[in-house]
Amino acid sequence: MSFVFDIHKSVQAAAYILKNAPKKKLTRGQLIKLLYLADRLSLQQRGYPITGDGPVAMNNGPVLTEIYDLIKGKSKKSKFQEIWTAFFTSERLDVVLRKDPGDGELSPSDIGILESVSKDFGYMTFSELRKYTHALDEFKKCHVSDTSKKIPLRILADAVGRKGDFQRIEQTKKFDVHMSRLFGN
Q: What's the CA angle centered on 16, arms 10 and 21, to 5 degrees?
């Protein structure tokens, strides 16, 4: 997508999904897939994602790159990793909420999207989510076995039915990047 990654919204979105999970924890793969689906639905409904993270097509389906690194404890941005680990811990392959970050950075629309994704997909196992995301048009167009190929915004916009809106989405992304440079993230 190439919007600006927002660590605070990403932490709150992940926490929201975990709090709505049947066992209050999810595997790494489940959490990544649910956040991807939330960003995808947000792009479809509003023309921009919740997290701003950049998706890639990997063997197990679409992955949000920065969140993937944060979950593994391998973010190249130590400030982001510090923020993430203040709220989440790993128990083997599960992600568990350590402390509630609240939801003050999330808009009512963000929360509605996260609620919808939790309701529609939160009960699925990793295998079911993997199968579902492998059938998405953007994944089929971008996946190359044993690689992590970026999913371009144009392909994703087309896949969610926003092809005619691409110029506006691209302008929103440029504005997001510009504001991030001006005010920092």
A: 125
